[in-house]
Specification:
This protein has 132 residues and is α+β, with helices and mostly antiparallel strands. Helices cover 11% and strands 21% of the residues. The protein contains 1 helix and 5 strands, in the order αβββββ.
Amino acid sequence: MAQYLNAGTLIELARAAQQRAAASCECTRTPLDGWQSQPLSMDETLLVEIGTLMPEDEPEPTYSEYLPDKTTYWSSDAPIAPRYFPYNRCGVWQCSSCARLYLRYVEGGGYFVDRRIRALNADLIEDVPLPG
């Protein structure tokens, strides 16, 4: 299993990656500021998993979402709250060509599976504790 990344480590990695990221790359053909179904045009061989937001000691993370200020799951400005769904089920992946970071997980329903991806923006990461 990939190394668990807490919110502090995630912010550090995201800031470093944003400073190093090349202006353009094959991975940036489709804007991924908000959640998207992974584009078929994205070359998966460029992506390397560098960590996970799913803690080993939590076999069933919450499905609660953190969406303040009328943001929605699909919003490009929705906060990235690692303890909340869907982030708590994400792997953190890096483009080996340009150094950009992405969050990825598989959305599964009764009759479908959808690989979802979102660019990791350090400015949107919020370390929000779960209620209770």
